[in-house]
Amino acid sequence: MSIDQAVSALATKVRDLKSIIETEEATKTAFIIPFISTVLGYDVTDPREVIPEYTADIGTKKGEKVDFAIKSGDDFRFLIECKKVGEPLDLNHANQLVRYFNVTDTEFAILTNGEVYQFYAQLDAANRMDERPFMTLDLSAVDARIFPHLEMCTKSNFDSDTIAASAEELKYVSELRKAIAAELKEPSVDWVKLLSSQVTTRRMTAANLELFTRLTATAASQYLRDETNRRLRSAQDLEEPVPAASPVPAAELSTKPEPDGDDGIITTDEEIQAHGIIRAICCSDVAATDITMRDAKSYCAILYKDNNRKPIARLQFDRKVPRIILFDAEKNETQHDLDAIEDIYQYADELRARVRSLAE
Question: Cα separation of 114 and 86, whole Å?
């Protein structure tokens, strides 16, 4: 089984069983032990490889345990500290993992709640565990870009030097992405001055700084919106033609709105874009092909498996202010006006909850 297949299978298991797991021990049994076995490739039945409840006396701390130690011969590969699924991961509540890491010869550690796996190294100082993970695997929203790095951590491919080099790149790319996101959301003075210097020769007085801070924020917002639209259009252009039996007629996937026969129904680019966004949101819980679109004169319905008794949302885009109507498990409606199509992302939690209730 490939690394992506193993992760996908475990993600499905977590999604199916998460709601009934009530303890840390159940989390270990249902999710974490299979992760060690199927994803990392270690024999969980061999105490020479995987040691549960690993104990060592550290100074005045006697009998403290870390949930799992993974070894190869006398060498530690990973120390793993576990929490109950759903619990937040915080190193402040995993003190024994940090202490064990700092006094053993291990170079890598994992903090997990069975759904989210945080990988730690010692990049900032030798023999001291970093405060921030270099890689995070979130089974509720798997990022396929980490698969090559995760492959390096498996039993058959493990090489500490290679992982350390990869870890450094991953960590700093992650931190830079966060820094860029922060600047795009709320530009700092230094960033505003840097960008402004490339487009104007004005001296950055207080008034000009205030002006260009606002302009930079507006430009960043427009860039992100345009990039989102570009990616959605590219995805639609690459989408394969829909078979005749598909619940979404090919006409609905046209990038140009055309009347459907003589019924006066026009599927607009905005409705197609909204359908793509809702698909992107809900595909973490159900298959993307289960999120279908059925247009009508007064609204555009987003349905689960093209069943009009299972509405996910309704789009009312033929009004001055576009609106989305959401449904809860009891089919109660809530209406939300949209300033832009991308505002649908604000209701991601409600949409995912709805498709989960329909799938069940």
Answer: 8
How many Å apart are CA 248 and CA 240, to the nearest integer?
12
Q: Is 124 helix (H, G, I), strand (E, B) or coil?
A: coil
User: In sequence order, what are the residues at sequence separation of 6 or more whose Cβ sits closer than 8 angstroms to the Cβ of residue 292?
Assistant: 247, 248, 302, 303, 304, 305, 306
Q: How much is the pLDDT for 44? A: 93
Pick the CATH number of 3-177 from 3.90.1520.10, 3.20.20.70, 3.40.309.10, 3.90.1570.30: 3.90.1570.30
- Residue ranges of the chain with pLDDT lower than 70? 56-64, 230-264
* Cβ-contact 324, 336 below 8 angstroms: yes
- In sequence order, which residues have a C-beta less than 8 Å from that of residue 98 and are 6 or more positions away? 91, 129
Quote the tokens at residue 208: 């000009």
For the stretch 286-343, pLDDT in tens is 887 889 999 887 889 999 998 888 999 999 988 888 899 998 877 788 999 988 888 8
Neighbouring C-beta atoms of residue 62, cutoff 10 Å: 9
109 vs 128: CA distance, rounded Å: 11
Burial track 152-184 (b if 16+ CB lie within 10 A, e otherwise): bbeeeebeeeebbebbeebbeeeeeeeeeeebb
Q: Quick one: pLDDT at residue 331?
A: 78
> Which conformational region is residue 209 in: left (phi greater than 0), alpha (psi within -120 to 50 degrees), or beta?
alpha
Q: Which residues pair with 52 in a beta bridge?
A: 68
Whole-structure pTM value: 0.57
| Residue 217 near residue 188 (C-beta atoms within 8 A) | no
Identity at 12, one-letter amino acid code: T
